[in-house]
Amino acid sequence: MLESKPAQRIITCLLTASKWWNLQQTNNLTQAERSALSDKAMLEAAMALVLEHGTEKTTLAMIGERAGYSRGLATYRFGSKGGLYDALCKSISRHWLEYLKQGVGDKVGIDAMCAALDTIYRFAEDSPEEARALEILYSGAASPSSEYQQTAIDIRQRQKSDVAEWVRRGQETGQIRRDVDAEEVATQYVAYITGMTYLWLMSPDNFDFSISNEVMKRHLRDSLAAA
Questions:
Q1: Model pTM?
Q2: How many angstroms separate the CA atoms of 181 and 171, rounded?
């Protein structure tokens, strides 16, 4: 049913007041706070567009417009599309690291590696858009022309370092065999989770994270556990 003219005027006034209030709130922010707000909006817009169009077809102009800012602000703030993807990759990785710290806690050895597998599954369940966007960015980082390749390499290296440390700590506590090479185990573990998440990205309906996790946990215990 059509609304009366008085009702339409009331709605218009409310919308105008809401826009005014939002503008006032923004105007009350410091320059640093406004910059952080616009950066956050552009990173969220970039993630949505990457999921819709991929990294190649997404443009900085599209990102700026989706975020509600001028077409040139993304270029001014991040320099290039690669620079924005680099920032997005780091932003999602920081969120993932928070998940990892909570999931693993003070566990070491096999317990830490199994907890990390559960955390990957939970992250994909709780934050599927971030998880998928990060894997798309990792895939794009393999290109020789990628501007954020080093960031992806550094993140993978950090993962390997963490796993190697879990293994060494597990050896110190008697949970893991002494003859195991921590660096080799870390390389194999990161290769597994990289392949696992790639399969999930390519065919989420035909890949069961939970089953793969349980299989990997059994393999870790069978191959690494001290007698």
A1: 0.80
A2: 10
